Amino acid sequence: MTLKEKLQEEMKVALKNKSQLKLSVIRLVKAAITNLEIDRGHELDDSEVIEVLAKEAKQRKDAIIEYEKAGRNDIVESLKMELQILQEYLPAQLSEEELKAIVQEIIDSVGATSKKDMGKVMAALMPKVKGRADGKVVNQLVNSFLE
C-alpha cells in the first residue's frame, strides 16, 4: 500500500469516527499532494509524498514558534496536535548520534576538508536523510564538522 493510499484510507476512517482535526489535516495534505502532481505532471511516489508531509510538518513547527512568541497558546495547542498527526505518516527521525555518524561518513567519502566542500557534502548527504532530519540541523552539523 502506497502512502497516498494509506492517507486515503485514514481519511475514510477519520470521516467515520468524526475526527475533524485528523480529517482536516489529511485533506490539506492530499490537496498539497494533488497540487504538486499537477505542477510536476506525474503521480507522486512515496518519497515525493514524504517531501510534502515533511514540508507541512516544518510549516507547523515554524508556526508553533511564532505563535508561542505571540503568546497565542490556543493556536499553539492546535498546531501541536496537527503536527502529531503529520508525524504519524513520516519516517522516524534520526537521532543526533545517527545523524553525526552519517555526516562523518559522507565527509570521509567525498574527501571534504573545508567549508568550500559544503556543497559536495550536502549534495551527497541530503538524499540519505531526506524526510528523516531537518535541513537546518543537517546544515549546522555539516558546518561544525567542516570548521
Helix percent reads over 70%
How are helices and strands ordered from N to C? HHHHHHH
What characteristic shape results from the CA principal axes? globular
Question: What Rg, in angstroms, do the CA atoms define?
Answer: 18 Å
CATH topology of the largest domain: Hypothetical Protein Yqey, Chain: A, domain1
Rounded to the nearest angstrom, the distance between the terminal CA atoms is: 44 Å
Query: Care to count the β-strands?
Result: 0
Tell me the β content. under 5%
Main beta sheet? none
The whole-number mean of residue pLDDT values reads 88
CATH architecture descriptor name of the largest domain: Orthogonal Bundle
Overall number of structural domains: 2
Describe the protein's topology:
Blueprint: H1 3-16, H2 20-40, H3 46-69, H4 73-87, H5 96-110, H6 118-129, H7 135-145
Q: What does this protein structure show overall?
A:
The mean pLDDT is 88. It contains 7 helices and no strands. 76% of the residues lie in helices and 0% in strands. It has 2 domains: 85 residues, Hypothetical Protein Yqey, Chain: A, domain1, CATH 1.10.1510.10; 50 residues, Arc Repressor Mutant, subunit A (Orthogonal Bundle). With 147 residues, the chain is mainly α.
Briefly summarize what is shown.
This protein is mainly alpha-helical. The chain is built from 7 helices and no strands.
